[in-house]
Amino acid sequence: MKARLFVPLALFLLLAVLLAVGLTLKPREVPSPFIGKPAPAFSLAQLKTGQPAFDPAQMRGQVWVLNVWASWCAPCREEHPLLVEAARQKQVTIVGLNYKDDPRNAEEWLRKLGDPYQAIAVDRDGKVGIDYGVYGVPETFVVDREGIIRKKHIGPLTPEVWNQDVLPLIQKLKG
Amino acid sequence: MTAMKRWLLMLALAAAATTHAAEAPNVAADPALEARVNALSAELRCLVCQNQTIADSHADLAVDLKNQVRDQLKAGRSERQVIDYMTQRYGDFVLYRPPFKATTLLLWLGPALLLLVGGLLFWRSLKNSQSAAPAAAVADADARRAEQLLAADDTPR
């Protein structure tokens, strides 16, 4: 009857819906411009002495995960058991990018917590990190057979993220 | 006791001086370059502390990115090229001033749009209240009654 009376209520509901949607957004997760683009090339020494330099081009032909980590990064410790388990089950090849870390601390860390990485590139000054748009460790990239980045996860991997997002994608990419 | 205090004070001052000295090397010998670095850094968002520019922020990554800006400018790249380098890696989000394009239309034009809508509503309600004014005038019968009452009671108090 008096439609005008409901205008404030409608406006309020609209605002409430907008704010509710706003609450679910994650402004900390900046969308990566790398999705669908080739993984930036680099060549870095490996953490383990005696290994040849690591270059992403060596991974052509297989689906792999690049995990950016550091021994000083607390959330890395949180996600680490998940990576160790994934490597043990041979779910995917995991390469580490040891970001702005002291190699001695990194080695100690791996001795204590286990080493899921097939190779670990040492990014001492964080330059390669910048090339990959890394702004907070841990970050995890999924790269396909052609060397194209298919996914980027910012922050620690949780079992939910791994089992619902990352692993299905890896299995799809492996075909 | 006082001697020891003095000693401690001197030690503290010495420590303060050395920590300060350790931060110094970033100040480039070339003030013109540094001015360009600072100007450009003020246009780039720090991704760790998102409401600061990398010029304002002391986060590790901000310092790294600022060094990157300095290195690239020193190597002869233009401001435009450095901005492109950053957006290729971190997306448009790294720009403190968002670019004007299809996805940011609402962001840029939103305030003007709101002003326009608000102005229109205001103008309409103003017009309505003007045209509604005569209708609100007192009915004839009431007016006559009021006159009678006023006339009846004109003795001064």
Overview of this structure, please?
Chain A has about 180 residues and is an alpha/beta fold. Chain A has a single domain (about 30-175), classed as 3-Layer(aba) Sandwich (Glutaredoxin). Helix content of chain A is about 35%, strand content about 15%. In chain A, strands 3-2-1-4-5 form a five-stranded mixed sheet. In chain A, strand 1, helix 2 (about 75-90) and strand 2 form a beta-alpha-beta unit. Chain A is elongated, with a radius of gyration of 20 Å. The model of chain A has no long low-confidence stretch (mean pLDDT about 90). By secondary structure, chain B is mostly helical. Chain B has two domains: about 1-100, Helicase, Ruva Protein, domain 3, CATH 1.10.8; about 105-150. Chain B is about 65% helix and about 0% strand. Chain B is built from six helices and no strands. In chain B, helix 2 packs across helix 3. The interface of A and B includes residues 28, 30, 130 and 132 of A.
- Please compute the radius of gyration of chain A using only Cα atoms: 20 Å
Helix content of chain A: 25-40%
Supply the number of structural domains of chain A.
1
CA-to-CA gap between the ends of chain B?
A: 90 Å
Q: What's the total helix number of chain A?
A: 5
The total domain count of chain B is: 2
List the uncertain runs of chain B: 19-25
As a percent range, the share of strand residues of chain A is 15-25%
Instruction: Tell me the fraction of residues in β-strands of chain B, as a range.
Output: under 5%
- How far do the termini of chain A sit from each other? 60 Å
> Considering the protein shown, what is the CATH homologous superfamily of the largest domain in chain B?
Cytochrome C biogenesis protein
Largest sheet of chain B: none
Using the alpha-carbon principal axes, give the shape of chain A: elongated
Strand arrangement within the widest β-sheet of chain A reads: 3-2-1-4-5
| Helix fraction of chain B by DSSP (H/I, runs of at least 4) | 55-70%
CATH topology of chain A: Glutaredoxin
Any idea what the CATH superfamily of chain A is called? Glutaredoxin
Total number of strands of chain B: 0
